[in-house]
Amino acid sequence: xxxxxxxxxxxxxxxxxxxxxxxxxxxxxxxxxxxxxxxxxxxxxxxxxxxxxxxxxxxxxxxxxxxxxxxxxxxxxxxxxxxxxxxxxxxxxxxxxxxxxxxxxxxxxxxxxxxxxxxxxxxxxxxx
Length: 128
Description:
- The chain has one domain (2-120).
- It is an all-alpha fold.
- The mean pLDDT is 91.
- Helix content is 84%, strand content 0%.
């Protein structure tokens, strides 16, 4: 089960990193569109408006993705707070169909199993 715990931690970090990458990608598209509108169309206010929107979107993705990365680190280090936060984020991610649902179910399966619980309590776990 130790391998499963490690996989869950890595998946949470990857899930959070993907959210950050998507946020930065959307922001760069919006700023690029603003630059094109300013240069080609002579709309200088488009750049400032789209930059504000891009900043908001990037901040939103940062706020939503940072807990995923933090829980991944906590789970990899077998911290009890990481396990508790993992339950919360897994339950919330069940609504994010299809990948968040799969990650949520797998996380709950691993963290709620007796072997998974023993890992976070510092007990010796024998692999079967």
